UniProtKB/TrEMBL annotation:
SUPFAM superfamilies: Cytochrome c. This is Cbb3-type cytochrome c oxidase subunit. Heme c 1 binds at residues 161, 164-165, 296. Its cofactor is heme c. Residues 148-228, 235-319 form the Cytochrome c domain. Pathway: Energy metabolism; oxidative phosphorylation. Heme c 2 binds at residues 204, 247, 250-251. C-type cytochrome. Part of the cbb3-type cytochrome c oxidase complex. GO terms for cellular component: plasma membrane. The lineage of its organism: Bacteria, Pseudomonadati, Pseudomonadota, Gammaproteobacteria, Chromatiales. Binds 2 heme C groups per subunit. Component of the cbb3-type cytochrome c oxidase. Keywords: Cell inner membrane, Cell membrane, Electron transport, Heme, Hydrogen ion transport, Ion transport, Iron, Membrane, Metal-binding, Oxidoreductase, Repeat, Respiratory chain, Transmembrane, Transmembrane helix, Transport.
Length: 326
């Protein structure tokens, strides 16, 4: 908050408190020549005023609220940029990155600041940490069919993953469906955990110039669509096939994607009808022309290994609702 607005808050807060005290005090004094309990000559809308004092309980309560407000404003932040005697704050403000957040947490520990959110996280970690550790000792597949673990995993998913993948985990354009068995990097427990721990960064470059402009993109689009059995212009598809070597390094010459060829790129299978960014001719044209740059964040440092382990079990269960036969 700027100095101007800080001063503005102070100037308007303190006079209000002082004004309430003054108004209460003068209201206790009798300024009319009429005994208490008798009517006065003040009449408004046919209602005649009686000279009655404020109830004592109400008066004492009002004074207590004024005294409490003074102590509150002295102890806690509330008067502009004044931080209060307790050096308390609800959370670290102005944080723009995970690194800044960690630095702010360490700083609050060294300078004696009381950051409420940090304290609540510490309390939650002390209370629930042993529970997460206990679940993390078990095998992912075993954990995936434990109802108690799945309830925890679902909460972790809703808090951290549903923004992109949806609360039902069925994804949306640019964010994969986690309830099927179509995986770009593999759907085994180890691969899912690796994805959650370290994140994924995929990048398909623009091929517009390399393909020779609009006509080359049109031909490649026709060939890519033909791989999944679409009806296309065969002349364009044949011309596109001749240039597909540009794409084969990631998708393979057969177009089945990097997973089918044990490659680490996360390039999708072009021969099925599962499309991350849409399978229409327009969407495929856009992908080839502009490229695609998807990124999933790493949860190793935000959730920790134990929570990621439980979350792995939940994600595995989404795509494998039935427990495999032993």
């Amino acid at each position: 908050m700027s100095s101007f607005w800080s001063a503005w808050v102070i100037v308007f807060t303190l006079p209000v408190i002082i004004g309430c005290f003054w108004l209460l005090t003068i209201s206790l004094k009798n300024y009319v020549d009429v005994p208490e309990g008798e009517v006065t000559d003040h009449i408004v809308d046919g209602i005649q005023e009686v000279n009655n004092p404020l109830p004592r309980w109400w008066t004492y309560m009002f004074y207590l609220t004024i005294i409490w407000s003074v102590f509150y404003l002295a102890l806690y932040p509330g008067l502009g940029n004044y931080k209060g005697l307790l050096n308390w704050t609800s959370s670290n403000q102005g944080i723009k990155s995970l690194a800044e957040s960690r630095a702010a947490v360490e700083l609050s520990k060294t300078d004696g600041s009381h950051v409420q959110f940090d304290r609540e996280l510490e309390h939650a970690s002390e209370k629930y940490g042993p529970i997460f550790q206990q679940f993390a000792q078990r095998d992912v597949i075993d954990l995936a069919y434990d109802d108690a673990a799945i309830k925890i995993g679902q909460r972790l998913f809703l808090q951290n993953c549903s923004l992109c993948h949806g609360s039902d985990a069925r994804g949306q354009t640019g964010y994969p469906n986690l309830t099927d068995n179509d995986w770009l990097y593999g759907g085994s427990p180890d691969k899912i955990k690796e994805t959650l721990m370290f994140g994924r960064k995929a990048a398909m470059p623009s091929w517009y110039d390399a393909l020779g402009g609009d006509q080359g993109v049109k031909e490649m689009t026709a060939y890519v669509l033909s791989l999944s059995g679409r009806q296309v212009d065969q002349v364009d598809a044949t011309a596109g096939k001749a240039k597909f070597a540009l794409c084969a390094a990631c998708h393979g010459m057969d177009g089945k994607g990097s997973l089918a060829h044990n490659l680490p790129f996360g390039a999708p299978n072009l021969t099925d009808n599962t499309w991350l960014y849409g399978g229409s001719a327009r969407a495929v044209t856009e992908s080839i022309t502009l490229g695609r740059f998807g990124q999933m964040p790493a949860f190793e440092k935000t959730l920790g290994a134990d929570k990621v382990h439980i979350l792995t079990a939940y994600v595995y269960r989404l795509a494998n609702p039935e427990k495999p036969a032993e």
